[in-house]
Amino acid sequence: MQDTVCCGCSVVCDDVAVTTKKATLQSLGLCKLGHEYCNSIFSKTRLTQPLLKSNSGKQKPVTISSAIQKSARLLRESQKPLIFGWSNSTTEAIQLGLKLAQVTKGVFDSTASFEYGALFDAKLHGGETGQVNLDDVRDSADHIVYWGVNPAESHHRHASRFTVFPKGKDIPEGRESRVVSVIDIRETESMRLANHQLILAPNSGDVEFLQALIAELEGTQDHLPEKVGGVPTIEFLSFAKQLRDADNVALFYGNGLVHSTHAAQTLPFLAKLSKLLNRGNHRCWTLPMVAYCNTIGSVKTSVATTKLPFSVDFISKGVKAVESIQTSITDSEFDSVLIAGWDALSFLPGPLAKALSSLPSIALSTHPTLTTDKATVVFPVALTGMETTGTVYRMDGTPVQLQPFAKAPKGVPTEEKLLSQLINGVISS
Amino acid sequence: MADKKVNPMQLYKLLPQTNCKKCGMTCMAFATRLALREVELKECTPLFEEEQYKDQLTQLQNLILPLLDTEETGIKLDETKCTGCGNCVVVCPVDASAEPDTAFGKAARTTETVFRVEDGIVKIINLEKCRRFPPERMNCRVCEQGCYVNAIKIW
After folding, report:
1. Where do the domains of chain B lie?
2. A286 in the Ramachandran plot: left (φ > 0), alpha (ψ -120 to 50) or beta?
3. Which residue(s) pair with A110 in the sheet?
4. Does residue B82 carry a pLDDT above 50?
5. A165: nearest CB among B83, B90, B120
6. What's the whole-number mean pLDDT along residues A109-130?
7. Chain A residues with CB inside 8 Å of B84's CB?
8. Share of residues in chain B with pLDDT > 90 (%)
9. Residues of B with CB below 8 A from A193's CB?
10. Any idea which architecture A117-288 has in CATH?
11. Which residue among B105, B116, B149 sits closest to A160, beta carbon to beta carbon?
12. ipTM
């Protein structure tokens, strides 16, 4: 067995081991999602050759040098290319993605703008995530809140590694020393672990609940109705009391809150709640449950290079923020797109995917996807984590060094190597 | 006090190990299920019919005695439901003493724990260490309570 780092989700488990025997993977400690992710090194559908779309519209295998030449020409001749994706790429590849956007005077954007863009507007994290350390959460958090996220399905080992079950320095009894609250609009598997199972009314339940919670903590609550945002008042009051009494609250929020109908109101309220709970010796850590292994890395790298978290427009002098990447895409402001580290067309809403699929595109991918199906040029690349060295940033912003255990198929480069060649191609041609 | 723990491997070593499947399974599976009290020793007919196993039969009968005076109990794991989250690994008090890092959230990596996540799914690798079995016979259900998906059933 060989130690490795799993890039299957943003928990980035680094306490796991694998071995490969006769084209099968054996693992220790990897969850189902992580095991299947690592097992994809044996996938029979792996991309192994660059593909180029011919005039007939069919993709045909070409050499890597001609694919690079064609891509470099495509990017150089573009007025405004979009350099896009990155959440499953290494930080080193993301740095080169930013450089490519710079040399092509394009726009750099990552999935962060779609996943959690709104939270940056709410100034919940001061423009950058990563002020929370999950090791501190494990050691000291005595009240765990999951809001609009179901880690039982999305981040399997989150609760066992860092939040609900483990013992920590100030948490001698593990689960028994913590209060756990799960807030959602339906009953979820994660609620099985919770002391407070709070089911909000869809649509406006979150706003009502947050407003009432803030008023309760500020001591300005006048009158409470029978239900608060769909939750019986007695349950609401009991939750609010335990939240106030906790020394260290760790509040994890997900798409259910970020993408709710009233996100423009809920996120500033959440920021206010966090501020209220951070008083005296009491602390409240708030952290988004991003999905991919290096979403935070894309934000950190972009901030370090350009001071902007994502949606960075490289203009002739410096950079400026793109106001709305969604509008820019649907308004056809881009004339080509390079997508790396994400199957964008499968995940984006219909109108955006449709607009992107009509552009000449370059896709860097490990497997055939909807994005590669529509691409003008397809580059096969190595799998992040299993076949590449480099760094990714865990959901709390902790850097983790990758420990590859396999070699990419013959002739398949890493994203880093490919992007270097592409940048050279653009500069020299 | 005699050791009352019953290890499936101990049972297996005393079984015929011919995998004749007269009981409907292999000898190893029979040993595991015998430790769980899911099958009875008499279902291994060669043990009782063939003279060569006489001594082994006596030893086996002595070995399973502690099980017979135990309250009915067992743990069943539904691997089709398990997501490999490792909640059971971290909460299990036996795992915490066998491999202390597991109590702090680390994955079980040794062969000493009750639970270990292998290939994305949890496996019970040392059932006989579970506190529900002799000599402790405690009414511990933390693994069942910590499971997201009801994959662990205790009776």
Report:
1. 8-68, 75-154
2. beta
3. A85
4. yes
5. B90
6. 60
7. 30-35, 156-157
8. 59
9. 87, 146, 148
10. 3-Layer(aba) Sandwich (3.40)
11. B105
12. 0.90
